Queue: 2 jobs
Job 1
Amino acid sequence: MSRFLPFFLFTFSLSLVANPEPVKEVIISGNDAMQFDIKNFQAKPGESIRLTLKNIGSIPKIAMGHNWVLLKKGADAISFGQKVLASGGSATNPLPKSLLGDVLAHTKLLGPGESESISFTAPTIAGEYEYVCTFPGHFAMMRGSMEVK
Ligand SMILES: [Cu+2]
């Protein structure tokens, strides 16, 4: 039996290569006017998502950095932005570690011309999941939601 194991493992890994799970691509940009260009998108429960955030502005990161932070269900982007400030969030520490319990996925803070792609799995529970840029004060403008259905 054991001599079949290598063959089994080979065909199994081959099937992973041959049938990759479909991945939903989402590309969001943030600009110097504190705007995300996409303020909502849909995902299927459990869907694999590759999200790219692009900072298309030119103002230095220390004054106009952007990140993309997806919050767990029921967490509100405005309240979360206020919590960031209350927890010592700053231009150099825009997402205090103490708040990560409310976060499902996030990029790092990006300066002008930078981009980052992250991969995550959409929650299996349907509903609205808010996202926000947690650079201090940006939560007033830079918000959106992912609708899982
Ligand atoms: Cu921002």
Job 2
Amino acid sequence: MFEPFKVEALSTFASDIDGVIILVTILVGFWFFVAQAALIGFCIHFRHRDGHKAQYIAGDKKSETRWITIPLALIVTCDVFIAMADGPVWKKVKEHRPEPDRIVRVIAQQWAWTFVHPGQDEKLGTPDDITTTGDLHVEVNKVYHFELSSRDVLHSFSVPVFRLKQDAIPGRTIVGWFEATGTGTYDIQCTEICGIGHGLMPARIQIETPEQHAAWVSERSQTLLASTTSLRAGQE
Ligand SMILES: [Cu+2]
């Protein structure tokens, strides 16, 4: 089977995006084969052979321009179908953001991903925030907003199982969203060539059950508390 379809679809909008990709593939694939068949057919039909000179046809007669205008009209009609299918999906994924259950911060840099998660208070920007490198922990069936930024150059935050991709632009914080529909550990990839170490900046997303996520937050909070306490003791 075609490789992209082996990637599981684990977000609330993944199947919508797959639907648009399948539609575009079918329409473009159909016209690709029609165009190639016409090209090869004309090459054979108008070729040079004994007693028959090869023809150069500029296509400026009215009867010949139909070979351009009719396919153009048909292809534009297909474009209209694609626009009708992708408009609502774009709106759902990029324009409309459901209210978040949690917010995480995603920071790209050459060549690593840093993730800041809310701690036990469920709020971002407080002292119990949990920062990790290379591992994003989220809970299944919860709406997350991510605040994406870059410390240096252009990167792109891609989570294939979510069918999610968003460029990270230095100087800007871009907010997006996702809601996972299944658990497991999956790839996060940078999909913007960002320097010589671009291929060395993979990360993982751990999609956890409510119990697993609560246990992870609790464990990391204990570690954070212990290190803060020992740091204070060392300063006194
Ligand atoms: Cu990158």
